[in-house]
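Thanks for the sequence, V.! I ran MerR family transcriptional regulator right away. Repeating your input here for the record:
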Amino acid sequence: MSYSIAEAARRSGLSIDTLRYYERIKLLDPPARDTAGRRAYSDDDLNWLGFLTKLRTTGMPIKSMREYASLRRHGVASAGRRKALLVEQRRSVAERIAELQGCLDILDYKIENYAQVERKVLGVEPGMEEISA
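Predicted structure:
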């Protein structure tokens, strides 16, 4: 199956400009071209774009993504380094999750504290009044 750049953008959730940018910075290999010379993206291209999107969502820097994409072109010989990049990114994500969990714990504590204030001190049901931090 092949997709026009507009369809690839729609399916990937990326803009047409982003697709062209990814191609220009070599995150994405140039897609095949149709008989009219227009880009024709494959299902493999869309799967790769999906993975790139996940890497960006994890906060992986473009520089690291470019290294990963370059290594990917070398096949199995680069598997160790690609794995190392992913392990490092996973560590970074785990640290962010722990930090966010700490923030969530504080929010839960404050919300419960204010719920107790509403019940005990104000004598109202939770949600009836706003209490500022």
